[in-house]
């Protein structure tokens, strides 16, 4: 153990991570926008945002909206949405990860955060309308399905207390769950009516369009290689240009350690997502998925499922994958993960096991995920 701790401490200094960013090959990436030109000159700005995903684009949008006199730039290594924002499980959930189905020592604050995140989900809908881009946001609720009696008791206790504080969450028994999504392998579920489902890459479109509409400059194919700290932040790009910034936003998620930040604290973990071809209403009726509600389980190796607007089932999660020092995934690992997702889909819907092999069109896609995004 001492050896592992020591290796963890010194490895970021001995083996710096390479600035390699594999392309997003997911289903969602089919709608990725054409890339903006890269930064071609040195620049002096008020705020530099590194990373063109949900965090970076939304930060830039709100900073510029609140302070229109500031020059704000976004620097994205590949194309906006190339990282986790454009390849994920597409669920939209309330709360923060540390408070999801848990109470902190400050229940009143838990309620405030619930209300804030529920409001923010609806704000995404308003932003989608304002930009004229349909990000396929469906606020039909979201489920966390439960597998054990202990999970059931914990969910019932949480729901009772949450409702006393004014949170409109519900506990669903097995029959109600089966009527909604047809999955009889679970004992019950926690239902949040303010959750939902989205097209992740189209949300990237919304945020990028909104940011540019208020004057944010977005540069893509612009790799920040390192940062010099001082009275100002000086960002050095792979093309030899520099950006001087009074303030800096690191919106780099799993790639943060590649810039030399949090090198001992971040492990870039990959999980996989499989997508079916569009299914007919009859096929969905065969498995009993009647309500357009996404769901995830609460096991250690979480699985999550959802329906696209054209009735494709996507399933993601399972055994996460890590490669030392942020290394790339090999093709053999991808095949193994894909097989695991097929088995899980067959386990959830056993009556449809024979049909799953005939679905066709299922293709895996890598998703970097540090935690479930909310």
Name of the CATH class of the largest domain = Alpha Beta
Number of strands: 16
Distance between the termini: 34 Å
Spatial extent as radius of gyration: 22 Å
The CATH superfamily label of the largest domain reads D-Amino Acid Oxidase, subunit A, domain 2
The main pleated sheet reads as: 8 strands, mixed
Number of domains: 2
The strand line-up of the biggest sheet is 5-6-4-13-14-15-12-16
SSE class: alpha+beta
Low-confidence region ranges:
360-374
Q: Which H/E pattern describes the elements?
A: HEHEEHEHEHEEHEEEEEHEEEHHE
Number of helices: 9
Mean pLDDT: 89
* CATH topology title of the largest domain: D-Amino Acid Oxidase, Chain A, domain 2
Dominant shape = globular
Please tell me the CATH architecture of the largest domain by its name. 2-Layer Sandwich
Helix % is: 25-40%
- Which percent band covers the strand fraction? 15-25%
